[in-house]
Amino acid sequence: MKTFLKIGLCLLLAAGFTACEKDETPTTGRVKVSCKSSDGLKSFIIYTDVEPPKNIIYSKHNPREDFSVDFNPGNYIYTFVKSSGTSTGLVNFQIRAGRTTKISYNNGSPTIDYE
């Protein structure tokens, strides 16, 4: 009888450990940037959400192809700088944990879409 009790207890413990899943809560979010432009972009810059933006946390020169970057959740500011030296202006956006933020630039008009 004691043997069955020991085996049952071992099986119960094994089932309990198996049922405990690792907590896989995402801690970062992703930014996907798509550049479909004919007006020559010089760079894409992401700043921390501070007015005026001072801290550049990401910069991509000549953003001709699509790319993606992972960031911590929070509020950020981005701008596209054209070859002429002018920019598209500062645009606020948000990174959410486990989600994707899509930024598209299509011939002068940037858009943001959240997934």
From TrEMBL:
Q: Where is the signal peptide?
A: 1-21
Q: Which PROSITE patterns match?
A: PROKAR_LIPOPROTEIN
- Supply the name of the protein: Uncharacterized protein
User: What species does this protein belong to?
Assistant: Alistipes timonensis JC136
Which terms are listed as keywords in the entry?
Answer: Signal
Signal as a keyword of this entry, yes or no, is yes
